[in-house]
Amino acid sequence: MNTSLNKAAGALSLLTLALMVHTPAMAQSSGWYAGANAGRTGAEIDDPRITSGLAAQGFATTSIQDRDRSTGFKLYGGYQFNPYMALEGGYFDLGKFGYIANTVPSGTLNGDMRVKGLNLDLVGTLPITGKLSALGRVGVNHARVNDRFSGTGAVGVSNPTARQSDTNVKYGIGLNYAFSETLAMRLEVERYRVNDAVGNKGDVDMVSVGLVYRFGGSAPPPGTRAAAPEPMVVAAPAPAPPVVVQAPPPTPAPVAPPTRVTLSAESLFGFDADAVKPEGRQALDRFARDLAGTTYGSISVEGHTDRLGSDSYNQRLSEQRAAAVKNHLVTSGSLDGSRITAVGRGESQPVTAPGDCKGNQRTAALVACLQPDRRVEVEVTGTR
């Protein structure tokens, strides 16, 4: 393995271990995605084979200057089957490599190699925190290698161009950091096994960074076309009816506001976030309107989480979400902040029974079963 690949892989491993103390959170479970990476590439150039090939033609090699570093990129798309597994395919260009061999009798042999191709990988994902995941991949690549050779002085070249297409293995490791549910950044180290056009087989490594875009759900259905207006019929005005003075209808009694409301955390907040989503703000605005014109004593806002994750992480998240709900009721709902308290209960008060959701390993089924525990409860006291 190249030294650069060893160093990069070691750095990724240390960073992964350092971040595993954080509490995992649920990653996006499935869906299509696309991305692009770019970075540095390195190739293994077989100097002994070059030397022996020149010796067979009667030349002694005095020195070889290798151009074994280049710049590459890849474009890819894939489908995430679940939080842990995806299938990914793409196009790669690993750059241009070469060498200059100086000989006796006096002359030089110049060689250049360009590597491009397609790949298909199985990608495994290990969630580390709510936003960071470790990646591991293994797959196949079909690389097309174009070689060009030229000689100077006493060195002549009988076949200046050669091409080779072949399928070999590829693998790699990396890290994925999600900025949001749709946009993420990847840092990857990959190794491509390739055959050149003159019988050599070697490795090309790429260390790259890029962005990944995850496509959302299906588009909303198209709106219904507005019906054409009915033709207007102008009729002669009818005689004015006699004026009858009626007593005004009695004022309806005010509707009592709800005394306790439970809101799902998924309906209020986004992925691993404590900012209230638009649909969550609508629900809180309705609650504030129900309190308008009534007299109440106090409002208590409690944040709750499920049992997945550490106690400290869940406690902090529940406090942040309760505070976010209080802030919205005060700033957008125009409620009296001095009468509103916000507390976080963490995972201490689940609504699911102990035997309802079994297991401790984070799975899609366990996360769905514990959904009722992830909530915010708002209680109004002293209403009249």
Summed up:
This protein has 384 residues and is of the alpha+beta class. The protein contains 6 helices and 13 strands. The strands form 2 sheets. Strands 1-3-4-5-6-7-8-9 form an 8-stranded antiparallel β-barrel. It has a 4-stranded mixed beta sheet with strand order 10-13-11-12.
Structural account:
There is one protein chain. The protein is built from six helices and 13 strands. The protein has two domains: 3-214, Porin; 260-381, 60s Ribosomal Protein L30, Chain: A, CATH 3.30.1330. The strands form two sheets. Strands 1-3-4-5-6-7-8-9 form an eight-stranded antiparallel β-barrel. Strands 10-13-11-12 form a four-stranded mixed sheet. It is elongated and about 115 Å long. The longest helix has 21 residues, at 311-331. With 384 residues, the protein is of the alpha+beta class. The protein has helices at 3-19, 47-56, 265-268, 278-291, 311-331, 364-369; strands spanning 31-43, 60-67, 69-82, 85-104, 107-127, 132-153, 161-178, 183-195, 201-214, 260-264, 298-304, 340-346, 375-381.
Strand element count: 13
Write out the strand line-up for the largest beta sheet, numbering strands in chain order.
1-3-4-5-6-7-8-9
Number of helices: 6
The name of the CATH topology of the largest domain is: Porin
Q: Can you tell me the CATH architecture of the largest domain?
A: Beta Barrel
The structural domain count equals 2
- Give me the strand/helix succession: HEHEEEEEEEEEHHEHEHE
Beta percentage is 35-45%
Shape: elongated
The assigned structural class equals alpha+beta
CATH class descriptor name of the largest domain: Mainly Beta
Q: Report the end-to-end length measured between terminal Cα atoms.
A: 76 Å
Rounded to an integer, what's the Rg over CA atoms?
33 Å
Share of helix, binned: 10-25%
Query: Largest sheet, described in full?
Result: 8 strands, antiparallel, barrel
Low-pLDDT residue intervals, each spanning 5 or more residues: 13-27, 217-228
